[in-house]
Each structure stands twice: as structure tokens, then as C-alpha cells.
Design a protein that fits this description.
By secondary structure, this protein is α+β, with helices and mostly antiparallel strands. The protein has 17 helices and 13 strands. Among the domains are: 146 residues, Alpha-Beta Complex (set domain protein methyltransferase, domain 1), CATH 3.90.1410; 143 residues, set domain protein methyltransferase, domain 2, CATH 3.90.1420. The radius of gyration is 26 Å and the shape is globular. It has a 5-stranded mixed beta sheet, with helices on one face. Strands 4-9-8 form a 3-stranded antiparallel beta sheet, with no helix packed on it. The model has no long low-confidence stretch (mean pLDDT 93). Helix 5 crosses helix 10, helix 14 crosses helix 16 and helix 16 packs antiparallel against helix 17. The chain binds S-adenosylmethionine (SAM).
Length: 440
């Protein structure tokens, strides 16, 4: 039974926490750019007052409820007129240029080109109230310099570098296409459609669009056209524990978000971007969610090799089996210890020559012998300690680099630091689990 004293203490702590959070919750609804945005949206038929823009102490800018939302009730319903899609782009002054271009460009590139052009037009743009509230820069890895990429967990470094290369390739391949817009501008397109401008537009589309399927256009490439920029609605932040139903309603012709559990008054309204771990959130959205239940620490092949016995004559064969059976990726530690896949890979690597014939049953989950199980736990601890050391070094380096960094670099360093801190927390839990297993 709870002691009354404890309950009173908890209540007091809760009150203090709420007061602290409220102090760092600043309404943005009276700022000129949001007043203009709301006015512009009202002209397009969006009038709801139940969500207001707020700067939150933990997640940054987002939307707060001004009234309670019941389970299954609407969070927001945005009329089609407010959405910016490839249809908007193809119907615009850029449409004929895009339609003429061969081979057809992707829906993503069409949207990016339009955003770049509209940002350049400034107040003369019909979309300026929306463009003005878009972030000026992002914390996705495509913005990271090499020294920041080096501070990511090893398994993420490769993906981050690939993202940068993929972006670079898109830019190089699009230069001629951008040049085709020259008649629309007085300035040379090289000065408008720069790599920086495309990076900004690319991140705007990738981090802010909602999923909306469109009919395939003959004027665009075969890549799926699933994007819609949804002004105001795109101020909703992600919470892994929230459930929503979202989609374009063909009857009401609105993009609707409904809450599954409901939400209290004066709370941040969240949506769910999907069951992503922190690596995916960082790669695709440029942030990490603290306490993310989907997060794990990945053991890359280089780290796994630390517990391999170079003198093991079957080592090459073991690694081949692991690779052929898809056991060399997605090896992870979670809050509850090493994953089944990681332990299975370690069990196969642990086999002595005379046990090697049982490799098939090991891959199906069978344990071999007590001493091999101990070897696996010991190896998992070794991997856990190695990843922890790597984290500690990265965190030290990050705190050095943060000193004297400019604002956008500081934001990037802080995101990487949050990721490392989250991983440290997972590894600490994993170590306790492994030590308990070792003691059994
Ligand atoms: C669709 S926008 C949401 C609104 C955004 N915060 C803004 O100021 O415009 C998506 C971006 O919001 C940020 N974000 C979303 N959820 C977050 C969270 N739980 N914590 C921190 N940042 C978050 C990330 O930068 C992400 O790329």
C-alpha cells in the first residue's frame, strides 16, 4: 500500500515538474509569422482554434491543445486547398517547364524545385506565409560535416555518408533541369538552385510531408508520388507512444488526423511518424526521441569481430553461414539485453570443432552447452563494454566541439549527443542484464 507521505511527495514533485515545464512552454501564436499563416489558412478554409503553436522545452516548436481531445476525435482537419502537392507544382508557372523535361523528374525533385523558387520569390510568393515558417536549416546528416559524421555510432556512419552521397548525386544530376527554368528568373539559375537551396528543400520535403498517394502523372517519373506538404499540420511533433489515424478523406476533401487515445487540454498534441528507432529518426527527420521504446544499439561487423578467435579454423565458414542466413545485420542490444539475433550469432561463433555439426539447430535458437553459453555472455559483455567506451569517447569529443560552435553546428552536435546519451542508457541496462545472466 502507498504511504500517504510518499503520495504527497509524489504530488509535490509532479507539481514542481509541471511548473518547470510550463515555464519553458512559450506560445508563438501572437508572432507575426503565425498570425499571417493563420490568416492565410483561414482564407483557404482552415479555421480551427483548438491547436496553437508553442515552443516546448524538450521538443522545440510544436502544437498545443487549447481544449481536451476525446479518444477517436479529430486533432486537425486541413482542407485540400491548403496542401502543397505535385499537382500544385504542375499547375503552377513551373508546370510547363517540368512537363517538357525528359526524362521526367521525380515527384520529390518537382516539389523541391517549387519550394526553392517560392522561397526565392519572398513576399511575392502565394505560399510565403507557409515558406516563412519553415525551418531555415535542418539537423539531418545531409547537413553534417565529416567530423560530425565520425561521431555517430559506427553502424550509422555508413548510412549517413550514403545519404550525403545520394543527395550529392541528386544535385549533380539535376543541374541541367534547374537550368531549364532560366526564362522564369532574372538571376542565373546557378545562383538560385544551389546545393544549399536543394539541401534545404530536400530536408523540408523529407522531414515534413505527410503520406498521401496521388495518381501517377505522365509528366513525372515512376517513383511513387506520396508527398503532401500540409501547412500548420506539419507543426505536429512525433511521440512514439501516441497513436493516431491520419489520411486524406475523399468525402470531406480534408487531410485528417484523429487521436486514438485522446489528449488533455494544454498538452502538446503529438502524432506518430512510425515505429522508428533513433537511427532512423536521425537519418530521416534529424532528431532523436528520448525514451524511444523502439531504440536499440546496433553491433556492427567491425565490433562483432572483436570477439572472434583468429585461430578458429572454422571462422571463415562460420561467418559465411551467418552472412548466408542473414545473421550479420540487425544485431542489437536493447533495454532488456542482447537481442535473440545477436545471441544466436554469438552461439554459432562459439562452436568448438566437435560441436560444429549442430550449426543448423543453433541458428534455429538451440543452446549448445553451458560453457559455450558462458562464452556468449562473456562476449556480449565485451561488445557492450566496447560500445560503451566508444560512446564515452564520442561524448567527450562532442562536448569539446560544442564549445565555440556556431548555432547550426551546435544544433547538429546536440542531436548527436542526445543519440549517444540514449545509447549509453540502453548499454547500461544491457550490462546489468548480462551481469545477472553471468552470475546465474
Ligand atoms: C513535421 S516537423 C514538426 C514540427 C517542427 N518541430 C517545427 O518546428 O516545424 C518534423 C520535425 O520536428 C522535429 N521533431 C519532431 N518530433 C520531435 C521530438 N519528439 N523531439 C524533438 N524534435 C522533434 C524534428 O526536427 C523533425 O524533423
Amino acid at each position: 500500500m502507498n504511504k500517504p507521505g510518499c503520495r504527497a511527495g509524489r504530488r509535490a514533485r509532479k507539481k514542481r515538474r509541471k511548473k518547470h515545464e510550463d515555464a519553458y512552454k512559450v506560445s508563438l501564436s501572437h508572432e507575426a509569422q503565425f498570425v499571417l499563416l493563420r490568416r492565410w489558412l483561414k482564407e483557404k478554409g482552415f479555421t480551427s482554434q483548438s491547436l496553437i503553436p508553442v515552443s516546448f522545452h524538450d521538443t522545440g516548436r510544436g502544437l498545443m491543445t487549447t481544449q481536451a481531445i476525446k479518444a477517436k476525435d479529430s486533432v486537425i482537419s486541413l482542407p485540400e486547398k491548403c496542401l502543397l502537392t505535385t499537382e500544385t507544382v504542375l499547375k503552377s508557372y513551373m508546370g510547363d517547364y517540368i512537363k517538357r523535361w525528359h526524362p521526367p523528374v521525380s515527384p520529390l525533385l518537382a516539389l523541391c524545385s517549387f519550394l526553392i523558387a517560392e522561397r526565392h520569390h519572398g513576399d511575392a510568393s502565394k505560399w510565403s506565409p507557409y515558406i516563412n515558417i519553415l525551418p531555415k536549416t535542418y539537423t539531418c546528416p545531409v547537413y553534417f560535416s565529416d567530423d560530425i559524421i565520425d561521431l555517430l555510432p559506427r553502424s550509422l556512419q555508413k548510412k549517413a555518408s550514403e545519404q550525403k552521397e545520394q543527395f550529392q548525386e541528386l544535385y549533380c544530376c539535376s543541374l541541367m533541369f534547374f537550368r531549364s527554368f532560366q526564362p522564369l528568373f532574372t538571376q542565373p539559375t546557378e545562383l538560385l538552385f544551389t546545393q544549399d537551396a536543394l539541401r534545404w528543400a530536400w530536408c523540408s520535403v523529407n522531414t515534413r510531408t505527410v503520406y498521401m498517394e496521388h495518381d501517377q502523372s505522365n509528366y513525372l517519373s515512376r517513383e511513387k508520388d506520396i508527398y503532401a506538404l500540409a501547412p500548420y499540420l506539419d507543426l505536429l511533433n512525433h511521440c512514439p507512444n501516441v497513436q493516431v489515424e491520419a489520411g486524406f478523406n475523399k468525402q470531406t476533401r480534408c487531410y485528417e488526423v484523429k487521436s486514438v487515445q485522446g489528449s488533455k487540454k494544454f498538452q502538446q498534441a503529438f502524432i506518430n511518424y512510425g515505429p522508428h528507432d533513433n537511427h532512423r529518426l536521425l537519418l530521416e527527420y534529424g532528431f532523436v526521441a528520448s525514451g524511444n521504446p523502439h531504440s536499440v544499439v546496433y553491433v556492427d561487423l567491425g565490433t562483432l569481430k572483436l570477439c572472434l578467435d583468429e585461430k578458429d579454423k572454422q571462422l571463415t565458414q562460420k561467418l559465411l553461414y551467418l552472412r548466408d542466413n542473414d545473421f550479420l545485420r540487425n544485431l542489437t542490444f536493447g533495454m532488456d539485453g542482447p537481442s535473440w539475433r545477436l545471441m544466436t550469432a554469438l552461439r554459432l561463433l562459439s562452436l568448438k570443432p566437435e560441436q560444429y555439426c549442430s550449426w543448423k539447430s543453433v541458428l534455429l535458437g538451440a543452446a549448445v552447452s553451458r560453457d559455450r553459453e558462458e562464452w556468449c555472455i562473456h562476449s556480449a559483455l565485451k561488445l557492450c563494454n566496447n560500445l560503451t567506451d566508444d560512446n564515452v569517447k564520442a561524448l567527450e569529443r562532442l562536448s569539446q566541439l560544442k564549445q565555440g560552435a556556431n548555432l547550426s553546428r551546435l544544433e547538429q552536435l546536440c542531436v548527436v549527443e542526445s543519440l549517444r546519451q540514449e545509447e549509453q542508457r540502453i548499454l547500461e541496462h544491457t550490462r546489468v542484464v548480462l551481469q545477472n545472466l553471468w552470475g546465474q
